[in-house]
Design goal:
- The chain folds into three domains: about 5-105, Fumarase C, Chain B, domain 1 (Orthogonal Bundle); about 110-210 and about 220-360, Fumarase/aspartase (Central domain) (Fumarase C, Chain A, domain 2, Up-down Bundle); about 370-455, Ribonucleotide Reductase Protein R1, domain 1 (Orthogonal Bundle).
- β3, α8 and β4 form a beta-alpha-beta unit.
- Helix content is about 60%, strand content about 5%.
- The strands form three sheets. The protein has a two-stranded antiparallel sheet. It has a two-stranded parallel ribbon with strand order 3-4.
- The protein has about 450 residues and is mainly alpha-helical.
- α3 packs across α8 (about 210-215).
- The chain starts with 15 loop residues before the first helix and ends with a helix.
- It contains 18 helices and six strands.
- It binds arginine.
- Arginine binds near residues 110, 111 and 320.
- The site of arginine has 10 residues, from α6.
Amino acid sequence: MATKPWSGVFDRATDRRVEKFSESVRFDQRLYAHDIRGSIAHAHMLSKVGILTDDERHLIVTGLEEIGRQIASGDFLFRQELEDVHMNIERALIDRVGDVGRKLHTGRSRNDQVSTDLRLWVRDEIDTISARLESLQRAFLGRADQDAGALLPGYTHLQRAQPVLAIHYWLAYCEKLERDRQRLADCRLRVNQLPLGAAALAGTSIPIDRQMVADELEFDGILANSLDASSDRDFVVEFASCLATIATHLSGWAEEWILWSTTEFGFLRLPQEFCTGSSIMPQKINPDVLELIRGRSGRVVGNLMSLLVLVKGLPLAYNRDLQEDKERLFDSVDTVSACLELAAPLVAGAALNRERIAARLEEGYLDATTLMEHLIQLGVPQRSAHEIIGKLVASAMKRGVPLASLPLEELRAAHPALDETVYEVLGVERAVAAFSSYGSTNPHQVAHQLELWRQRLS
Ligand code: ARG
């Protein structure tokens, strides 16, 4: 059995059940590379301020590097009784280099160490997730050529509303994902602050050089209050919240594409390699990946809730509760990463069923609002125009015909200002062309935005 680093004051060994209950090495071994990187920077600093000789530093640093390689190669035995990744690595170092290894933990505590490791890890994951978000944006953008000119019904309340260019839909997702990336970049600013040197809670009397450690580890700044630095997990909550927003964006998109791939909608054919079949119904091609993306958003939102409740009501400074942050965080990162990894090829591989969409595009009076706006531009107040067009729609509905099929006399009878120019805005193609506002689905507007996106992602 391994002696604990705190064994001095204890005269009885830890109960096995406590070891099993309190260990975290099962999951925090994932931080090993960041733990080693942080320890190496700490050793460099200890040597600069005269705590370690050059020889001692060399032994410690090469020892840590060897341990890193050993863990990476899979032949390192993590021991539960050594609790966490930090103590496992430290003990391995002492076993390897002898007593000099016992100097490494000078001027630091696991409390600032774990926060440092986790910040380094989160920083890397932010960069990875951001790159995956960009790949998904590229997948949406990559559809532009094949879907050029395609129109879709736009919905509110899932009721047909106004016609929209397919590319306008794709760019809408590019915008959402861009904000997700901005949120991550902003979160990164607060993540990338060095806690190491806060020690247990109050700092240290050892003459450490925190700026040197921050520089080596590429932190943008140093946390200025040791109580705060060793205790807070707001950076974890913030990252988990960014991930939850990404997950809800993905979930909304997945829901939309699940609907669009139904026989009822028939807008979209999903790539077969991203679908699964039924064990009993031979004809089924099911959108399971999209459903799982939608479903997994539940865990990511749940993880955020768990983290918020975890930190709620914790007095300063470090409390062991904080160890519970990692599994929730890791799960959110893994889940969102996996969803993004599949979303990009799914977006790229789907095909719009352009004929089926076009065949029913004149249903649902998608041009009614444009006709109303035409009447407004002829001088009729909006409230009156709304009512007049509403009556025309009701009459067309009764006969089961589109607005463009109404005879001119009927339009004139509805309002004398209506003349043959109405036919310039009737029908989905014309209605789309009639939009003119910045950010609208007008083809020139969309082409302009597409160009901006292509530049941004080039
Ligand atoms: N495994 C612990 C964690 O993840 C490390 C810090 C333990 N500190 C302590 N004083 N027990 O939070």
